[in-house]
Write a structure and sequence with these properties.
Layout: E1 4-7, E2 10-17, E3 21-26, E4 32-39, E5 42-47, E6 53-58, H1 71-87
Antiparallel strand pairs: 1-2, 2-3, 3-4, 4-5, 5-6
Length: 90
């Protein structure tokens, strides 16, 4: 697994590979815009950082790490939720 992934223009930096699998998410200017975490079968995306607003949740099969067949799907959905929140400030 790569330590950095780019999805739809946002850079995901793997900060922990398992138990939990988690990522910090950065925009093109290097500003942190998200935090992703999968632990105990619960996946969430927070904006703009851990403890911020939870903008996406789901329950993948993976427990503390995604199954290889589901990682791309859930990370992409989380990125889309973060990008949607970036466009629509409260």
């Amino acid at each position: 697994m790569d330590e950095e992934i780019v999805i739809e223009g946002l850079k995901l930096v793997l900060t922990c590979p398992a138990c939990p699998e988690q990522y910090d998410v950065f925009d093109e200017s290097g500003r942190q815009v998200g935090y992703l975490r999968l632990r105990h079968g619960f996946f969430r995306a927070d904006y703009p950082d851990v403890g911020g607003e939870t903008v996406y949740t789901d329950d993948p099969e993976g427990d503390g790490i995604f199954l290889d067949t589901e990682r791309e799907r859930y990370l992409t959905e989380a990125v889309r939720a973060i990008k949607s929140r970036m466009k629509c400030p409260v």
